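Preliminary data (for renewal application), S-adenosylmethionine complex.
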Amino acid sequence: MRNKPWAIPFLESFKDTVVNEPHLVASNWKSRLNCGILHVEIGSGKGDYWNKMAHMYPDHGWIAIEKDRNVAASSLKKNRDEILPTMALINLDAKDIGKWFADGEVDVLHLNFSDPWPKKGHIKRRLSHSEFLKEYKRLLSAGGEIQMKTDNGGLFEFSCVEMSNNGFICKELSVDYRRMDHPEDVITEYEQRFLDLNQPIYRAVWRKNNE
Ligand SMILES: C[S@@+](CC[C@H](N)C(=O)[O-])C[C@H]1O[C@@H](n2cnc3c(N)ncnc32)[C@H](O)[C@@H]1O
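Predicted structure:
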């Protein structure tokens, strides 16, 4: 996305929603967002999923993490009239996610159409790489979940193996998720593009193994 000169002041004007120092909120997210169940979406893009899921589940807290400043600003611009007090946005790289949440603070992690990083030398950047999974395991609550959707078969296979190697238990798995109606789950911007091309959506849900 092209550089947007208005992005920084625009993000700064949403003081209640944009959290610049998330490590200072660690262990207090649920009271800040006044919720019992906390969701975190990593790589939230233009924010359709974040916003619409927050409205569908208004008792839950919804944190969007988007590292690209221009994309994060666009997501706020697009959804600015609908932001709820249960929503927060972190415009930082999730590589530091381990510092932002206390142990067991997050109930559901969402990975929607994460970048596949196909080159061998870039595999560690995948959001479902073991290095990330070790952090997710710590910050997820007992019985906490990771929900993933992707169009990319290679990333999906990789993620299934990584989850299994890190002790996550597969609860749900589909290689054509939208074959059936799923009114409980919002279609993301990228997902809509692949649906328009008649491509199948891969989806899985893994539960943290508490043993
Ligand atoms: C392919 S887009 C998908 C956007 C959205 N989830 C959707 O389904 O429409 C992936 C997004 O993840 C963001 N992203 C990738 N790696 C990230 C990271 N380590 N931390 C935060 N955001 C990341 C990218 O900037 C990009 O906006």
